[in-house]
Each structure stands twice: as C-alpha cells, then as structure tokens.
C-alpha cells in the first residue's frame, strides 16, 4: 500500500505514523538506531507490504494492468488503491482527510530532530505539495506518477497506466473494496511489540 493507507493503518501516534512512512523514504541503514516507537511503525510498514503483495485481490489488480506494466504493477496498484481510499475516505476514517493530513504534516516538524536527515526533504516535499490529499483526483495522481517515474534508473512511463485505470475503473474499485477491509483487519490484528 502507498503512504495514505500506511498512515491510516498506523496507531494514532506521530512516531508510529512517521515510522510507517520511513521505509519508503530512506535507506535501510538510516532506519537502524531509531527509537522503539519508530521501529514499531517500521515493522508495521513491512508487515502491511508483505501482506499486500501476497493477497490474491491485489495480484488480480496487477493482472488488470497487463504485461506492459507487470514489472511496476505493485507500485501502480498501491497508488491506485490510495486513490480509491482517498475517494472513499469517510467510509474508513472518522476524521476528515484534510484534518488527518494536517495532523500528519505537523508531526514532521515536531519530530524532525528524531528522524533520519535523509527523510527531511521528502517529507517537506510531501507536506508542501499536499501529496496525501492529491490522490483522489486522477489528474493529480498522474502528476504523482510523473514524479515517481523520475526515480527509476531507466525511464518508465508510469503515467501511461492511468488510461488502464480509467478503462478498468470499476474493476479496480471493486478490487480495492474487497481488499482493504482484509488489510485493515490484518493490520489491527498484528501486534508490533517494542524491541528490547
């Protein structure tokens, strides 16, 4: 799952939420030595990713993309699912999306001294561009995919997948609706004990 889902499925503490973002933002070596409350979020991130990658509905969504996007299918479906989560936010959350994301963004600054330096810039970009609120609009999602495609060594046309999202919109939407409750139940069931 992508960032919005990771945050929603976090315990509602700033350190846990930030920890649940960090594995996508910094190197593995930068994660070592962080305080236990961040480590719990990091472990939750990895559990969510492992469960998601193995789930048959998630795999079905990847198949919808066809062979052209098979190599990056997991990344794209993560983004598409955050789109549907954003569109259906009130169904899954008690706080409005703008209020929730404002709370998350505020925590980036208050916890800045405790997190790896290499996370500072990505978190600032996320906040400044209000990325977490942008997934619900397909055009904004396209802009996000343009940004993401620049992170690959070789060019990858992630934006081309939006045509498939629009064509198969009902199918992806049904997949998300079937998958997300399973993921939420899994995330709530899994304990993330503090390391000694």
From TrEMBL:
It comes from the Bacteria. Keywords: Hydrolase, Lipid biosynthesis, Lipid metabolism. Signal peptide: none annotated. GO terms for biological process: fatty acid biosynthetic process. One of its GO terms (molecular function) is [acyl-carrier-protein] phosphodiesterase activity. The keyword Lipid metabolism applies. This is Acyl carrier protein phosphodiesterase.
